[in-house]
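Review this chain:
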Amino acid sequence: MEAEKFMRATIYLFNVSVLATVFALSGCGRNQAQKAPGAGSQQALPVKTVKAQAQSVGQYTEYVSTLKSRNSAILQPEVEGQITRIMVASGDRVEPGQPILEIDPRKQQATVHSQEATLNSRRANLELARKELERTKQLASAGVVSKQALDQAQSQFDAAEADVNALEANVREQSVQLHYYIVKAPSAGIIGDIPVRVGDRVATNTMLTTLDKGGELEAYVYIPAEKASTAKMGTPVQIVDDAGKKLADSKISFVSPRVDPQTQLLLVKADVPNTDRQFRNDQLVHARVVYQQLDKPLIPVTAVSRMAGQTFAFVAESNGQQTVAKQKPVQLGEIIGNNYVILDGIKPGEQIITSGVQMLADGMPVAPQS
């Protein structure tokens, strides 16, 4: 019994000692937590910032445009017939008057020879009528023939002379027509595709080839009718590639006075320089019509974050005690270099956070670094 009492007393004292130790440690922890300066406050995240810079940017709409040359000609024959020779190849450079192809001239040559033979016969008749008129005049002056016979001889001579004059004009016309059986280059340039072949029969509406003299082109741009009031002479136009890279600068040089009644589109033209021949006739390009120049802020692309289809940027702002990250929805424009044009949401001069954007939250303390 004595041993059992001693054991219970020992266990009781041990439990009291453990509880006293736990309470002592807990109180020490509370005292240290109360004494630790700044415990429980959120530390500021170091971030890099840049100032949003305003820049003049264009408010534009991009259209698909066709480039056309005012120095390009479509060659068609003046006569019908069968092609007997082609003297050039596609891509050849030709000079003015250089023969390009020949259409069989034999039928026309036969016509000219026939007309010339007929002309010679009519000239003989004219000479006979002239001699007959001279004899009749002499006999009439001697009183041998009547005035009626003289008038008749004069009439026959006039008719023969008119007949000869008409045939001479016809022969000249047929001879000129004979020259058209050799198709010649109207000016210097480069021969395009030649779709016809030797042996083909061509008509006056058949395209033989094209002749490109080079030089500047015209961009044909069709804009919606509601944009008609903003498209004016001198409005800037930019020719860009598929990636949006600018290839050439131009201005509107022609505005159509009417809108197409079927498509409700307005035709405008812009001269496109082509000294290095980077463009081709009938080429499709992207044309940006810059309707207005606006001053808009630019921010780096790394400062933009996306969430649920919305784009945001963080701005470093002071709330009076510390600097915090303020999340702002932004409307993005085009990319210029490594910067976005901000159409709405950011003002010029605001400090844009460019690093650690994915770790930021609205109102989170930050420590801006230059």
Notes: The first strand starts at residue 45 and ends at 51. DSSP finds three helices and 22 strands in the chain. The helical segments are 2-35, 106-141, 147-179.
